[in-house]
Design goal:
The chain is mainly α. 81% of the residues lie in helices and 0% in strands. It has helices at 18-47, 49-73, 81-112, 118-145, 153-183, 185-198, 202-216, 226-248, 254-293, 299-305, 308-349, 355-375. Helix 2 (49-73) packs antiparallel against helix 5 (153-183) and helix 8 (226-248) runs antiparallel to helix 9 (254-293).
């Protein structure tokens, strides 16, 4: 891996035209705003102000646990805030509206067939199909539109988890509010324990299967790999249906099924998160070591960049040595080094020459060098 040092680039060479970004941003904001108005109207019409407020506060507690967990997974190569907000709002607004419509249609379809219990079929069959498709569509949009940011397994897990967290947030508001309206405070507290304390990661566990599948094919985006995504979606639907079955059909056997099925699923989910983070750390260390051999990083920098604790210590050191400007440069240095590792990993995985990714690599190397000169003057 041989590179020649170049002068810092005066601008971001990969920046898209401003007018294009403004139009796209305006369209996204408009869609989300309209969806928020519709969903807000539905919530307040169904629950009323008091129940909606109590449900909102209760559901927010689960979000305070779920979202930081997924951000922890991707600490070494953090995703842009705009995409994380898009993921959360898609799950909270678009996915919930799509699922509400599809669930109603599905239950009505089974009722028209004179099914024995259309509500049970709706929970076990329709809901998993509708909800995982709606959530998965949001992850797929990020995969298709943000190619430079969605470049690995950890990214897929994070985006899928954030989409699912947004969906679960609004769904919890609806369920918790309904429990309060029907049963009062005891109903709200009981359902809060089940949904927000015992199983806050239920929806993320399912949708992560889709994100994992997309992450596996992120470096080889070919139609021949579409079956991997279909398998991931099918796994998400199956796990969702199994989870719902244990809740609505098992009856007296719920506790036993919870221990036998749901607990192992949750343990496997936690192990997957840990594996994804350790994998990203290994890729970052190995890739940046190659750049270090070529003279772009020192061994101490590589060790620091692959260790979250050392990264925090480096930011504190930079602030003490050069103030907020040096700390900001160190933060950018760390973020862009993580992005550089993923770009190089993509180049090594992709067959053939990819001019776009090589331009991105050169631009990152230039800006990383410029950031280093801020917190280590004279290099």
């Amino acid at each position: 891996m041989a590179f020649q040092h170049q002068a810092p680039s005066p601008r971001n060479v990969t920046r898209r035209p401003l007018i294009r970004r403004l139009i796209l941003t305006s369209a996204v904001v408009t869609v989300f705003a309209l969806a928020a108005l519709v969903m807000g109207g539905l919530v307040f019409d169904q629950l009323g102000l008091t129940a909606a407020g109590l449900a909102l506060v209760s559901a927010s507690i689960a979000i305070g646990v779920v979202v930081p967990t997924f951000l922890w997974v991707d600490r070494l190569e953090e995703e842009p805030g705009r995409l994380l907000w898009f993921a959360f709002l898609w799950g909270a607004l678009i996915s919930t509206l799509m699922a509400l419509i599809l669930n109603e249609l599905g239950v009505a379809f089974f009722a028209g067939l004179h099914a024995e219990d259309p509500l049970v079929l709706g929970a076990v069959v329709v809901a998993p199909l509708a909800e995982e498709s709606a959530k998965g569509l949001g992850v797929l949009l990020i995969f298709c539109r943000a190619r430079r940011e969605f470049n690995g397994i950890a990214d897929g897990i994070v985006y899928a988890g954030i989409v699912a967290a947004g969906f679960a947030f609004v769904e919890n508001i609806l369920y918790l509010g309904s429990a309060y309206v029907e049963l009062g405070t005891p109903g709200l507290v009981g359902l809060f324990v089940v949904r927000c304390l015992v199983s806050p990661f239920a929806h993320p566990m399912f949708t992560v299967c889709i994100g994992l599948a997309l992450g596996l094919v992120a470096h080889r985006r070919r139609w021949s790999s579409a079956w991997v995504v279909v398998v991931g979606w099918a796994a998400a639907v199956f796990l969702h249906g199994l989870w719902n079955y244990s809740a609505v059909v098992a009856g007296d056997a719920y506790l036993a099924i919870f221990v036998v099925v749901q607990v192992p699923l949750f343990v496997a989910f936690l192990l997957l998160l840990r594996w994804a983070r350790r994998r990203e750390s290994r890729i970052l260390r190995e890739t940046l070591t190659g750049y270090g051999i070529a003279g772009w990083f020192t061994p101490a920098e590589v060790a620091m960049l692959a260790d979250p604790r050392e990264r925090r210590r480096a930011r504190r050191w930079a602030r003490g040595a050069g103030g907020s400007r040096a700390e900001a440069a160190m933060t950018a240095f760390q973020d862009e080094s993580g992005e550089l590792a993923m770009v190089r990993h993509h180049l090594e995985q992709e067959e053939g020459y990819d001019a776009e990714w090589r331009r991105r690599e050169r631009a990152l190397l230039d800006t990383i060098t410029a950031h280093r000169r801020v917190f280590v003057p004279g290099v």
